[in-house]
Amino acid sequence: MANKVTNFSDLIQRVTSSCLLHPIGTPRHYTNDVTDDDSDSDTKSEKFYDDGELDDVAPEEGRTGVCKSERETEMETLLSEVFETVSFMKKAYVSLQQAHCPWDPDKMRSADVAVVAEMKKLGVLRERFRRRVLRGGGGGERVVAGVAVREVVAPYEAAMEKMKVEVRNKEKEIENLKEKLKSVAVVSSGSGGRKSRSHSHHHQSKKKVNYSSQLPVSPSPMPEHFESCISSVKEGSKSFTSLLLSLMKSAHWDIAATVRSIEASTATTTTSTPTATTDSIVGPNHAKYALESYVNRKIFQGFDHETFYMDGSLSSLLNPDQFRTECFTQYRDMKAMDPIELLGVLPTCQFGKFCSKKYISIVHPKMEESLFGDLEQRRQVLAGNHPRTRFYGEFLVLAKAVWLLHLVAFSLDPPPTHFEGSRGAEFDSRYMESVVRFLGGRVAAGHVVGFPVSPGFKLGDGSVVKARVYVVPRSEL
Question: Residue 88's closest CA among 117, 110, 108, 109?
Answer without folding.
Answer: 117
